[in-house]
Design goal:
- The complex is a heterodimer.
- Chain A is α+β, with helices and mostly antiparallel strands.
- In chain A, 22% of the residues lie in helices and 34% in strands.
- Chain A folds into two domains: 1-33; 37-133, Rieske [2Fe-2S] iron-sulphur domain (Rieske Iron-sulfur Protein, 3-layer Sandwich).
- The longest helix of chain A has 30 residues, at 2-31.
- The radius of gyration of chain A is 25 Å and the shape is elongated.
- The N and C termini of chain A lie far apart (57 Å).
- The termini of chain B are far apart.
- By secondary structure, chain B is mostly helical.
- Classes of the chains: A alpha+beta, B mainly alpha.
- Chains A and B meet through loops of A and α5 of B.
Chain lengths: 134, 306
């Protein structure tokens, strides 16, 4: 009798856990669904003049005949990096990480360099950066 | 009873009652704000409109902010009062766990409110929170998406937590502890008077536009210590493990020295008491260190402010 009750209890528990998981899994998948969005940021000709240009979370940098785009998000915890014209470096206002003009980490808690953003030159002379969000 | 004893008992009575009046005002002003506040689109502009253009918006925003802060600060002092005087020993473990958890959720409610300002400080705080969760090994990104998502819906989940999930959960956890939900009329009058004067005469802090370039951006006052730690140690350790361990140590105290502790007069009981004393002083030291870290961050910010 004892054993029968024990098995019954185990079966009840197993059914509850299985039923709960069957319901929880689709709910969890739904709630945490991820869609990667891409945002196109266009730098028209007249906005490419400076050595460092900023627009909507992207830095467009000219360095020794090279042009590239960097994400302005700090790779540490995501604050927007400021460009310091005096030291010609990027600095995080939240936790103090610093990066060179090429986006390489110099100091602070960040462990990675600034992320490069793919850049495309349009026939009009405008430049388009493709930023991934989400 | 000695005069200091009477005084501290009086404080123990006043703190929660004044806190409850602040909570009533906080909920009431929140209900007013919810009619105009929108967590989608340009949230910064919406908050600026509430503060500068919509009639009495500045008053209700300041009343909501002030009453929320006062409620959580008084609840923190109330808990500290119980902790310092070892009055957690009066509580069954389950009740103490519910109450400490509700205090942690109160801080999360303040934090989501800070994010919902929609200015640079709020957005950065939200991103930092999201990236700390993202840094959890294996399940980080999935867990983060339960609280905050990047992109157009950035403010929506914090809004849902701030206005709905967290207040309901806090009230559910505190339901057995609060004897009367509507505070005594005298405390309500004092609380309302003080907070109305605050909302009328203290202007809301200047909100920083998202595109502003400031040398240092700070989070809410209660997270300044964590913000300082984040400069030196990895995000998961500074933002989750250390605060989590602190709360866990606080939670188990009644199990070591309260009614839930072993009753038999044996080695286990003495061992539990010794662990309780050790944890008590460890927590005291942690509170002191955290206060110093907070002070240090506040001073460094004050130095940078022109």
């Amino acid at each position: 009798m004892e054993r029968r009750r024990f098995i019954k209890k185990i079966l009840e528990w197993a059914t509850s856990i299985l039923g709960g998981a069957l319901l929880a899994y689709p709910a969890f998948s739904f709630m945490t669904f991820r869609r990667v969005n891409e945002k196109k940021i266009v730098f028209p000709r007249d906005e490419q003049g400076g050595r460092v240009n900023f627009k909507e979370g992207v830095y467009l940098v000219h360095e020794s005949n090279d042009m590239f785009a960097l994400s302005a998000r700090c790779p540490h915890l995501g604050c927007t990096l400021n460009y310091d014209t005096v030291s010609q470096s990027f600095k995080c206002p939240c936790h103090g990480s610093a990066f060179t003009l090429a986006g390489r980490r110099v100091e602070g808690p960040a462990r990675k360099d600034m992320a490069r953003v793919p850049l495309q030159k349009l026939t009009s002379g405008d430049v388009e950066a493709l930023l991934r969000t989400g | 009873m000695s005069a200091p004893g009477k005084m501290s008992n009086r404080i123990s009575i006043y703190l929660p009652r004044l806190g409850l009046s602040a909570l009533v005002l906080c909920i009431a002003s929140g209900i007013v704000l919810v009619f105009i506040y929108r967590p989608m689109g340009n949230v910064f502009q919406n908050v600026e409109a509430i503060t500068t253009r919509i009639p009495y918006g500045w008053f209700f925003r300041q009343l909501h902010y002030g009453s929320g802060q006062v409620f959580v600060i008084l609840m923190l002092l109330h808990t500290l009062d119980h902790f310092v005087r070892k009055r957690y020993r009066m509580y069954p473990l389950k009740e103490w766990v519910s109450l400490v958890t509700s205090l942690v959720l109160c801080f999360l409610t303040l934090f989501t409110g800070f994010v919902l300002k929609g200015d640079q400080e709020g957005v950065f705080a939200g991103r930092i929170f999201m990236n700390i969760l993202n840094a959890i090994p294996f399940a980080g990104e999935t867990v983060a998406r339960l609280f905050i998502i990047p992109g157009n819906g950035f403010f929506f989940l914090p809004y849902l937590y701030h206005c709905f999930f967290l207040p309901l959960l806090i009230m559910y956890l505190m339901r057995a502890h609060i004897r009367e939900w509507f505070p005594d009329r005298r405390f309500m009058m004092i609380g309302a008077l003080g907070l109305f004067v605050y909302a009328l005469f203290v202007k809301p802090a200047v909100d920083i536009p998202l595109e502003a370039s400031l040398p240092e951006v700070q989070g809410p006052w209660f997270f300044l210590g964590i913000q300082t730690l984040l400069r030196w140690i990895p995000p998961v350790l500074a933002g989750l493990i250390i605060p989590g361990l602190f709360v866990a140590c606080l939670l188990v105290l009644p199990a070591l020295g309260g009614p839930s502790a072993p009753t038999a007069d044996c080695g286990i009981r003495n061992g539990c008491r010794a662990v309780e004393t050790g944890l008590y002083y460890l927590l005291m030291a942690a509170i002191g260190v955290y206060a110093l870290l907070t002070l240090w961050a506040a001073i460094s910010q004050a130095r940078l402010t022109p």
